[in-house]
TrEMBL record:
CDD domains xrefs: ABC_subfamily_A (cd03263)
UniProt key word Amino-acid biosynthesis: no
UniProt entry keywords in alphabetical sequence: ATP-binding, Nucleotide-binding
GO molecular function: ABC-type transporter activity; ATP binding; ATP hydrolysis activity; lipid transporter activity
Protein name listed in UniProt: ABC transporter domain-containing protein
Length: 530
């Protein structure tokens, strides 16, 4: 390289003597500097960051020079024995996988661990297998370790201990061979913003080795399959969140890999797009019957609709495993009962409004504050009598509502309405208390309708609690109320149906449904006990 400043200075480096073109050396040096600046902005370069870079480079060199099969434990004391209280199904799956008696399985995870920074255990001795044609629902609470596990399977992360096999190829010792069989849709769309939908699919089809003569057909097939024809030539930054997700799943499926890993594929999709995506996934696993799908989702409906087997992770550990029906039968120790009472009749409503109105106008017996409230509500009490005040015009303040509660013999119900923290207040109750705070009053007919509806719910509740000991209220939406009933030897489904049918008319029940525990309540059970 020559350097001139008035004089011609000697050549500092003459690479041509070594057979290296000077410009190529310059190119490499500037490329490395650019890369470094891209990764670490100038203002962040300090002695500490330079030391960090050096340490990382040393680690990379050490890793590449050592065999992949070497144990990767930073400290073997981190990897303690598995949980002695492990669930029996999880244990049976572990024994089956470790004893190599897993027929047709194309993915095996064996004692897979991931520990970040030597202390943060993200995945703990995970062992399970997935078969051909199976859609495995990999569920779990936030931070349970699902994404970390999938990242290890797809080769993005290295296991800290244990390993997984994909078509017999070890992901630790032979990551490339293992990865060849996988289509992976990550949790966050990894799209290039200025490439179009079509260009993305072409790019990934080429990366996956689709031959040139098939390229166009393969790309078009995915565009049509995912209903992306209208958006085929749009750059990815201009796509909606749902369409970006569709493109990410389409990329994972391009080239028809035998294993498809989908990390929350339907996040951000509207219900129609979601159904559409379910169809595609279901066709892939159950109908084509050859592809193994691992699916993570926070939607229990999605898991119920698509998965043939489900594993629930909590705190890096698998807490249960089995078909949705098996999990419901094993962990669903209750029935879900939803009851909808008949509507409040207009005659009952009219009668109650009139009763309250008459008592309100029985002025001499009211305390002073209530009188002034009434004046505010209906514009002065002197000229208005109970006969000429319109029911709809009367707006009840908080104090009036408290007194009406006393008249009607249920102060507790009013307390719940005013605090609106109780589940049994329901959505309607919450709306009323919001209206009270916002407008300073509730119209008499609305209050009366709420009161009568609550009467109906109370009658039903008293009946349920006395008929099914241990029943618990799960919430009320104003139209219906849900209960969990303990389910066991002394209470069968037939008993519950029989009892409700016999008392249905006298209780004023319009509709009711009884079902086994939902997947959601089972998931909540594991999440709550984490
Ligand atoms: N690079 C990292 N460094 C340190 N800790 C990490 C790293 N990545 C993940 N973790 C931690 O590992 C645990 C598992 O995270 P992971 O993302 O796998 O959970 P998840 O089950 O996929 O959660 P979510 O449902 O929220 O996506 C979390 O406690 C997380 O904070």
């Amino acid at each position: 390289m020559k350097f001139e400043s008035g004089y011609i200075v000697e050549t500092v480096f003459d690479g041509s003597k070594l057979g290296i073109e000077p410009y190529s050396v310059e190119g490499i040096v500037f490329f490395l500097i650019t890369l470094g600046l891209e990764l670490v902005p100038l203002h962040k370069i300090t002695l500490v960051t330079l030391k960090g870079c050096w340490e990382s480079m040393k680690k990379i060199f050490q890793r590449t020079s050592s065999s992949y099969t070497e144990p990767l434990l930073e400290s073997s004391s981190t990897y303690v024995a598995i949980d002695p209280d492990e669930d029996v199904d999880v244990q049976a799956e572990r024994n089956r996988v470790l004893s190599d008696s897993t027929d047709n399985a194309i993915i095996y995870l064996r004692n897979l661990w991931k520990v970040y920074h030597g202390t943060k255990v993200a995945v703990r001795s995970l062992t399970f297998s997935v078969q051909e044609g199976e859609c495995f629902g990999f569920l779990g609470t936030n931070g349970a370790g699902k994404t970390t596990t999938l990242s290890m399977l797809s080769g993005e992360e290295r296991p800290s201990d244990g390993t997984a096999f994909i078509f017999g190829k070890d992901i630790s010792s032979n990551p490339k061979a293992a990865r060849r069989h996988i289509g992976y849709c990550p949790q966050f769309d990894a799209l290039l913003e200025f490439l179009t939908v079509r260009e993305h699919l072409e790019l990934y089809a080429r990366i996956k080795g689709v031959p040139d003569y098939k390229l166009e057909d393969v790309v078009m097939e995915k565009i049509v399959e995912f209903d992306l024809l209208k958006h085929a030539n749009k750059p990815s930054f201009s796509l909606s969140g749902g369409n970006k997700r569709k493109l990410s799943v389409a990329i994972a499926m391009i080239g028809d890999p035998p294993i498809v890993i989908l990390d929350e594929p339907s996040t951000g999709m509207d219900p129609i797009a979601k159904r559409f995506m379910w169809e595609v996934i279901s066709r892939l696993s159950t109908r084509r019957g050859k592809t193994a799908v691992i699916l993570t989702t926070h939607s229990m409906n999605e898991a119920q609709a698509l998965c043939t087997r489900i594993g629930i992770m909590v705190g890096g550990q698998l807490r249960c495993i089995g078909s949705p029906q098996h999990l419901k039968t094993r962990f669903g120790n209750h029935l879900e009962l939803e009851v909808k009472p008949t509507e409040v009749s207009s005659m009952d409503l009219e009668n109650l409004c009139r009763l309250i109105q008459e008592r309100l106008f029985d002025i001499p017996s009211h305390p002073r504050s209530l009188l002034s409230d009434l004046e505010v509500c209906i514009g002065g009490t002197d000229s208005i009598t109970s006969e000429n005040a319109s029911v709809a015009e009367i707006s009840l303040t908080e104090d009036m509502i408290v007194i009406i509660g006393q008249w009607l013999g249920n102060e507790e119900r009013i307390k719940i309405l005013l605090s609106s923290t109780d589940l049994s207040a329901g959505v309607f109750g919450e709306q009323l208390s919001e209206q009270l705070v916002r407008d300073g009053g509730i119209p008499l007919p609305i209050f009366s309708e709420w009161w009568l509806a609550k009467e109906k719910f109370s009658t039903i509740e008293a009946f349920i609690i006395s008929s099914f000991p241990g029943a618990t209220c799960q919430g009320c939406n104003g139209l219906s109320i849900k209960y969990q009933l303990p389910y066991g030897n002394d209470l069968s489904l037939a008993d519950v149906f029989g009892h409700l049918e016999r008392n249905r008319d006298s209780l004023g029940i319009a509709e009711y449904s009884i079902s086994q525990s939902t997947l959601e309540s089972i998931f909540n059970h594991f999440a709550a006990n984490s």
